[in-house]
């Protein structure tokens, strides 16, 4: 399979229950009654297979904020979160702001009050929130997803699973809404049998990620009632691929003192780039077929990426793109593969999303179970960048006969990268390569 880039990403969320208090509130003899109460909804097999849930109401999207506003705000959320991750991790970084936004946005439907405000604010969407219509933002996310996943020249799949304890009660309208706006797939699991629960979840994840992630969970908290898994899968082809025959081992300078040998890809080709005089970095844009590109920002001096990270905003990226000039260059880029996972619940708390993870969580739109809270959010992402991406892999080799020596851009020191979808300027992935020989 020829792929220029291949990414995927997974989420794990556990809805932790304060079991001691649940037990006191739900003595065994009342349980039947509790579960069959009118307003609560017990998951039944038919419901999982129900495909066409009708729209519960008409969605009015006010003109003043659009998908473009959402992606701009989400990009800045991505950069804010990136800085939090970068502060706590010295090495390579990779995550998907897009997927995290989708996952947390689904929780806007399940929460109320301060818990909800914190999510909206943490996602940097507070200026877009429509007080009259709580479905305004979900509708924009839905529109975004439908649009960017409909492209035929690359594959972008994003989705979410909800694995629910067999006897756990969810608010039926939450169930319908999360399916309607965020395409959540529901599966019933018996977390009491953690062996079986693990099997069911891993099987589903394995299937949706086409085998890229086979083993997501090692073990479960047997008190878990709801586990959400979210994935993104992107497969694109370079418009102008690298010729694998020109890839050679070369040194990559991690810092002043350390170097590693990496497979360095090469092409002599027309490439769009710019040099940022203020931040002293070179920015290169490599397009995939369809409307997606990889943006690479390389500081002039190795180890200088920290000041660059501090300045990242959607506006700065816009400025870079506006200043880009396309010219023929000799371009060197290391092949790399990253595989990262983060305890996002800890990072989200530093962005102000706190109540969701405590007993103060107001998940009353999701369940009427007392003391429900989210105990874990884990994201796993994998990216592979290599020469491949098209059948015409040798195309750039012929350009080697140029008479004048073109300028050279050599990515042989730590760099930042972003994967943007261009129609809505959506930041799909964001990361940093400090050492290409590590995952
Ligand atoms: C569970 O809820 C009870 C009742 O509010 C509280 O006293 C207790 O500290 C909680 N336990 C945990 C582990 O959060
Ligand atoms: C949405 O974006 C448009 C165009 O950039 C801008 O004019 C408008 O003020 C934005 N709306 C909000 C609510 O930020
Ligand atoms: C996506 O949105 C853009 C801009 O609004 C539009 O031109 C394009 O046709 C849409 N594509 C799909 C598949 O909906
Ligand atoms: C949820 O969807 C089901 C199946 O379409 C429907 O029968 C039910 O009325 C919906 N419930 C609510 C509360 O919207
Ligand atoms: C799971 O275990 C709990 C307590 O051990 C029990 O009350 C509940 O009925 C069990 N659920 C299922 C589906 O077996
Ligand atoms: C748990 O599930 C596994 C696999 O489905 C099954 O073999 C085993 O008997 C179950 N254990 C219990 C205690 O139900
Ligand atoms: C379910 O959620 C809806 C809003 O999404 C709310 O109006 C309703 O009261 C909730 N039902 C229960 C039983 O909590």
Automatic annotation (TrEMBL):
Coiled coil: none annotated. GO terms for biological process: blood coagulation. One of its GO terms (cellular component) is extracellular space. Residues 79-436 form the Serpin domain. One of its GO terms (molecular function) is serine-type endopeptidase inhibitor activity. CDD domains: serpinA10_PZI. The keyword Signal applies. SUPFAM superfamilies: Serpins. Keywords: Protease inhibitor, Signal. Residues 1-16 form the signal peptide. The keyword Signal applies. InterPro entries: PZI_serpin_dom, Serpin_CS, Serpin_dom, Serpin_fam, Serpin_sf, Serpin_sf_1, Serpin_sf_2. Belongs to the serpin family. This is Protein Z-dependent protease inhibitor. It comes from Alligator sinensis (Chinese alligator). The gene is SERPINA10.
């Amino acid at each position: 399979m020829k792929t220029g880039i291949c990414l995927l990403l997974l989420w794990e969320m556990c809805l932790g229950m304060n079991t001691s208090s649940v037990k006191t509130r739900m003595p065994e003899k009342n349980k039947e009654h509790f579960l069959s109460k009118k307003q609560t909804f017990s998951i039944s097999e038919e419901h999982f297979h129900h495909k066409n849930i009708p729209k519960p109401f008409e969605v009015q999207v006010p003109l003043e904020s659009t998908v473009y506003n959402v992606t701009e705000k989400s990009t800045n959320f991505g950069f804010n979160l990136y800085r939090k991750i970068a502060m706590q991790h010295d090495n390579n970084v990779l995550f998907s702001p897009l997927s995290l936004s989708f996952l947390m946005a689904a929780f806007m439907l399940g929460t109320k009050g301060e818990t909800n405000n914190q999510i909206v604010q943490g996602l940097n969407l507070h200026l877009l929130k429509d007080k009259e219509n709580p479905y305004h933002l979900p509708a924009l996310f839905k529109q975004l997803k439908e649009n960017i996943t409909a492209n035929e020249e690359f594959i972008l799949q994003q989705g979410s699973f909800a694995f629910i304890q067999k006897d756990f009660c969810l608010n039926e309208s939450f169930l319908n809404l999360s399916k309607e706006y965020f395409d959540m797939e529901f599966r019933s699991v018996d977390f009491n049998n953690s062996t079986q629960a693990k099997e069911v979840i891993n099987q589903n994840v394995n299937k949706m990620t086409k085998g890229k992630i086979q083993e997501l969970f090692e073990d479960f908290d047997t008190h878990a009632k709801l586990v959400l898994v979210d994935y993104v899968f992107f497969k694109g082809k370079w418009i102008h691929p690298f010729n694998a025959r020109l890839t050679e081992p070369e040194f990559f300078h991690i810092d002043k003192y350390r170097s590693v040998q990496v497979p360095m890809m090469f092409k002599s080709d027309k490439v769009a780039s710019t040099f940022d005089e203020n931040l002293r970095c070179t920015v290169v844009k490599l397009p995939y077929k369809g409307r997606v590109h990889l943006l690479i920002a390389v500081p002039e001096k190795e180890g200088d990426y920290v000041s660059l990270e501090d300045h990242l905003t959607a506006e700065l990226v816009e400025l870079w793109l506006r200043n880009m000039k396309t010219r023929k260059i000799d371009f060197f880029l290391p092949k790399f593969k990253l595989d990262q996972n983060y305890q996002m619940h800890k990072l989200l708390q530093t962005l102000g999303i706190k109540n969701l993870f405590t007993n103060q969580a107001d998940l009353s739109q999701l369940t009427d179970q007392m003391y429900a809270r989210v105990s874990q959010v884990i994201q796993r992402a994998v990216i592979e960048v290599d020469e491949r991406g098209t059948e015409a892999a040798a195309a750039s080799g012929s350009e080697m006969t140029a008479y004048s020596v073109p300028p050279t851009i050599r990515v042989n020191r730590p760099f930042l990268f972003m994967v943007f979808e261009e129609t809505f300027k959506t930041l799909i992935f964001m990361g940093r390569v400090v050492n290409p020989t590590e995952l």
